[in-house]
Amino acid sequence: MPNALPFKRLTTNSTEWITVYIEGQPVKIRQGDSAAAAVLVAGLQPSRTTVVSGSGRAPYCMMGVCFECLLKIDGVENVQGCMTPACDGMQIVSQQQARQLNRTDFSDSDLSSANLSNKNLTDKKNEDPSV
Amino acid sequence: MNIPVYDLVIIGAGPAGMSAAATASSHGLKIVILDEQTAPGGQIYRSISNPAIADENILGADYYHGRSLLTAMRYANVDYLPGSIVWAVSPDLSISFSRAGKSSQIKAKKLLIATGAQERPVPFPGWTLPGVLTCGAAQILLKSSGLTPAAPLILAGSGPLLLLIAAQLNRAGVEIEAILDTTPKGRYLKSLRYLPAALRNLPLLIKGVGLLVELKRSGIRYVNNVSQLKALPGSNQLLSKLQYSVDNRIETSSCTTLLVHQGVVPNVQLTRALQLEHQWDELQQCWKPSLDSWGESSQAGIFVAGDSGGIAGARAAEYMGELTAQRIAQQLGKLNKESLLKQTAKAGRLLYQQQAIRPFLDAMYQPADEFLKPSDETLVCRCEEVTAGQIRGMVAQGCTGPNQTKAFSRAGMGPCQGRLCGLTVAQIIADERKVPVKDVGYYKIRSPIKPLTIGEIADLAE
Fold first, then answer.
1. What is the pLDDT of residues A42-60, one digit of tens each?
2. ipTM attached to this prediction
3. Between B52, B134, B145, which is nearest A60 by CB?
4. Touching A: B residues 274-333, CB under 8 Å
5. How far apart (Å, rounded) are the C-alpha atoms in residues B244 and B223?
6. Coil vs helix vs strand at B90
7. pLDDT tens sequence across B263-290
8. For residue B152, with 0-12 CB atoms within 10 Å meaning exposed, 13-18 middle and 19 or more buried, which class applies?
9. Which CATH superfamily is domain B5-118+265-335 in?
10. Do A66 and B133 touch (CB under 8 A)?
11. Is the pTM of this model over 0.80?
12. Which of B117, B165, B167 is CA-nearest to residue B138?
């Protein structure tokens, strides 16, 4: 849940306003804001936890250098928030440590479409019963 | 696969890239700009095609100067591809880039790298806490979104950008608790010998003094000779206090946002990946590619203009972009040597004036040792969470360079690929070994220079 004090908006040139969802909460932002800026408007800090120790981090450089603003955007993990323009209806949640690899990413249909022979698959299964 | 070929491929659409494109197109070259950002301007003129803030006094006239570059670029015959992340360049100048999640390739007869600068890493205990941002980040949020940091707000560091963002936030009505200047004692005296040369760029010197006067009149608490920064978390693990030392006294201030700055350094990721020759700049304390006076690198056909070739500022980048584009046009047979010299005389003079002030600024604002070689407890590699003490320990065990400490500790192996620790790690190793930084070297940077999905690489096989 957003918990930090939010960044404030000055009077801006007229533009469109859009709604994004930060951890499920609707937040109104300016068209052209990045996903990382949206996180600062919402006060979502930390916006990620580190891979090594799980400590909290938040946007730092805002120019694509530091990778501290990694977010889960519309279901895709490890997206660089400051390099991603926000769009209406975008779902943004914090990135929790390392990206999760789903078993469905490596389904049997993927393997068969990669044209692996049945023999190879069988051999592999014999070597490692967990596959 | 049919790969499009361009006379000139420009990477980056900051002042150098924009002016180079406009100049080169006047010679009828086929040009494409690959820009990582979603709109032209680079960082200095970020969002110049659609500035967020209604009140133009806040950012000041220097920012809106970018409109003239934008206009010139728009009139030029240039393919502009925003949102293009260049991830590899091969020696035959085939360029691989990813755009909207799909990769493609183009080929260049000449390549101009205009990827600009990044802020120098500012390591100190607690710099990874949420709530600590760079001054550049605050400026980007102002320019592109009209957003201002949460109060209470403290600015700490050294350099022209620190003063500029303080003045801009003050004009925007943002309350600043304090400006903590970490410029070490004696720097004013040390930089004095460079002052006569700096006088050649009197307008910029006067602007600098004007900023100092503006800040003084604002009544913001300005503390000189600050050292030993330490950011402390509250119970929620967010930044809550800043501890610092002034005149051997430890002070503590509450803050929600801390903006830090220790100058800018060239973005060498691409020039390093191309294995171009680099040199150590002792005054600027950073690496830069070795270039001839036209911006051509150690590899023929690859040029570098703007701050990615050495820090000289936005105006210098603009003039350098123009010079380089003229030289490229000459190499491609669009004008002879004589007209090249004639057509570049003015830009050359203006560039010289911009460069004249640098040694003075570089000597004055060279970072304090505590940010170049931070204390043992300080995290130097933010991605892989490696401390300065761990780097020192590895040197004690015989590591002689950053590629060895990388292999042992993963420092420099995270998603930022060493952008935020490369300089610090090399400087710590040099300091421990008591050898010059240039003897220690830098990380070996390999393509892809930005993290990619396997799918984005596979696109090229189709």
1. 999 999 999 999 999 999 9
2. 0.96
3. B134
4. none
5. 11
6. coil
7. 999 999 999 999 999 999 999 999 999 9
8. middle
9. FAD/NAD(P)-binding domain (3.50.50.60)
10. no
11. yes
12. B165
